[in-house]
Amino acid sequence: MALEHLFQGSALNAVDAKGRVSVPAFLRSVIERRGDARTITLAKHEAFPALSAYDPAYAALKHAKIERLFEKQEGDSDAALDYQQRNLMAFAATEEVPYDTSGRIVIPPMMRRKGEIADLALFLGAGETFQIWNPKLFLAEPKIPDDMKDIARFRLEERGLKL
Amino acid sequence: MALEHLFQGSALNAVDAKGRVSVPAFLRSVIERRGDARTITLAKHEAFPALSAYDPAYAALKHAKIERLFEKQEGDSDAALDYQQRNLMAFAATEEVPYDTSGRIVIPPMMRRKGEIADLALFLGAGETFQIWNPKLFLAEPKIPDDMKDIARFRLEERGLKL
DNA sequence: CCAAATGGCATGAATATCCATTGTATCCCG
DNA sequence: CGGGATACAATGGATATTCATGCCATTTGG
Fold first, then answer.
1. Which chain A residues are Cβ-neighbours of B114 within 8 angstroms?
2. B38 pLDDT above the threshold of 80
3. Is A146 near chain B, with CB under 8 Å?
């Protein structure tokens, strides 16, 4: 059980007033190699103030992971509740959005709020999934090691922004 | 689970103004024997002021290791955070670049900065991966034994450079 | 009928692809 | 054993494509 193509790399793109943003081409190419879809599922990240994003192929894998975890925990007192919550988290709390011919998505208002996305979106490959951050929050996040933050610093600098 | 073909040997190639550099043919042949890809993933080396480089086959191996480790630790209090950090380190902090028909890659600006690569690139086979150094930094690195540095000295001399 | 959302097009910059030249190691035949 | 010929590798430069993004047109829903 493993996905063949992995998301990697980073990019910083502009979010316009309508919440539209280009998904970097190198991430789209992974989606299109994994399947023939042109959609992205967005979710609040479990651990960070950011969005987690993935394609339909990963959604199936995610489901399998939840099932497996449940089997492992079976018998634990709160396993059933945990299982329900994970499923809701994975499916109710997500939104699927298509990207257009030029590779742009509209971040739905709820997700924009949950991920605290403003006018810049930092895309980070994370293997099976990728993440979308407000670069400001990424730099402020204590759980992110400092040398990782260099990615954001570099991408901002590249655009002539410093923050 | 081990890769059959290993990177070995050394070479010193020129980096042009656009950041283009030829990947030595003997390294490319290993990549192409491991899989059918023609891309290289670049990362900052964990211990040295240099770049670590590998092919998609090795990236998949790395991904599998991270997943297995997580499944083993699942339930531990900080397993989830550890997992997230490992994934970001392995995938967000790296960049995948294709090489063209003549075997050249463009070192992305961020990697060029992280690896402190100037106008010469020293390629060193390291088994499962290979490294790309600024030869000047290689010679200056205290953790590298002197007889290893003879490789760089020889390659420089070969080009009529001394440093 | 208006406001907002969506899809399509234009542009400038960044990127990739192609072609040409040079150098070097190898091979073959004299 | 020597010398030329040949193939491959590395590199420089020019051209062609692609990407991100602003702008405008069309649609949709209230």
1. 150
2. yes
3. no
